[in-house]
Hints:
Layout: H1 30-33, H2 40-46, E1 55-61, E2 100-102, H3 117-129, H4 139-187, H5 194-197, H6 206-222, H7 227-252, H8 286-296, E3 312-318, H9 327-339, E4 344-347, H10 357-369, E5 373-377, E6 410-416, E7 438-441, E8 445-449, E9 453-457, H11 460-477, H12 483-492, E10 500-502, E11 509-511, H13 524-535
Helix pairs in contact: 2-13, 3-4, 4-6, 4-7, 8-11, 9-10, 11-12, 12-13
Amino acid sequence: MRQILFLVFFIPVFLFGQPSVPLDWFHLCPQEDGIRGLSTERAYALLQDRTSSTVIVAVIDSGVDVEHEDLKDNIWVNPGEIAGTGRDDDGNGYVDDIHGWNFIGGPEKDVINDNLEITRLYRKFRDNYSHLNPLELNRRDRMKYAEYLTYKRAYEDGRERALDNYENFSAFRDRLVRSIDLVILALDDQPITIENLRQIDTEGDFDVSFGISVIESLLEDEGVKDFDFLKDELIQSLNDGVDHYHSRYHYYYNVDFDPRWKVGDNYEDSSERYYGNNRVSGEFSEHGTHVAGIIGAVRGNDIGIDGIASDVSIMSIRTVPNGDERDKDVANAIRYAVDNGASIINMSFGKGYAWDKAVVDEAVRHAERNDVLLIHAAGNSAQNNDLNDNFPNPVFERRRFLGPRQARNWIEVGALNYANPPDLVASFSNYGAETVDIFAPGNFIYSTVPDNGYNDFPGTSMAAPMVAGVAAIIRSYFPELSAREVRSIILDSALREDVDVMRPGDRELVPFSSLSTSGGYLSAYQAVRMALEKTN
């Protein structure tokens, strides 16, 4: 699922106050600005006498708005393909793949909503095992039957929670809107001011009291002049929350919903590669567009934001629906990126179950053989990934004879907060002393969204492209360095602080160094400095 893998904030941030942090905080410098950003400008100052070469970064995600004003000049264009011919001009198996490829679409329709992997696994095992008597099964089938029961329990628990959340949040939305309307009615055409609100008799009427507290928050935080606008914004955010829980019940945890027919592939054949279409933007591309902007929004053009990498080409590979991505598509997306020239792949998605880990592992090996660096978001469940599954991951399911146990071209990224210790780690971020490599800015991250828009999102989805952007700087200015060497530089140059932080999930104070393999957070400046030392 998109690490959307970012968190969903349904009541607007402004209801509780915007954080007092600059929109470009992830570029700032810990030493000069007092904020633990990347020190991006200091990094470029070290490179002023060097020339760069363009690096292709593949964004495997929900799609990228390739016409965005602040991205279009840095969007990859396939040099071997001629737009609109309806032919596979470069012979790579994909027709008119001008800016990338879409593995979740067919000739006419694209998959927008999909199940979670647990739902797909439950459906598969239900069809094979629900009608059997476990007492009559052999040992192997009894183990499979037990696996079926595990999936069944997880699916049913998730569906029940989804329905409860959908009903409860819908009721909350309706009550909040009703409370605001009651307050406005009680004002009887008086101006909406703090003073007038406090004159309203609220004795015994919780709804009116609740409405007043909400409106006061809006007035205090915004110095509001157009209350109707803020009310509309609030209602839209609430409706977005209802839509989210609607999706969880009707799509994520709905065993009777299966949209894969739209793609037209043989889903049981994981070796199948040539399916999909060339629509790499379109509906639901907000998440991927935001990720792409962090990496490669055009720098210095006085439009929107500055991305991290200056000489970069963004390849869009649409693979992630509103739901869990499918392993077959992820594997094909990695292969497409590698075979079409990407040297870095950003993967801001993840899930708790795997359908076919072996096919993804083989694609990861393919990337490693071709010197491609993989960057992956650690997830937003505030969990210890050392103890909980998070797919995809670099640990190979089947170790080959004398081969490595895990990929050596992989960086797993947790989310850093903009605040000082003990709030240094984002409260939602996954962590792991053995499974998460580094932390990078991942809360209140302002970047591009479709239709020439900009917005701030939280999530390890935003932290991963921070690392991808810094990796792109290094591979652009130091092309002689391998993917493994770039990985080592990024991790070895991480800034480490001997401080205690609140551990996500239980909020217990622990050493920051205990939450990742590097024990630190990303620094573009230190990474570039180390690359210079290594290559001089």
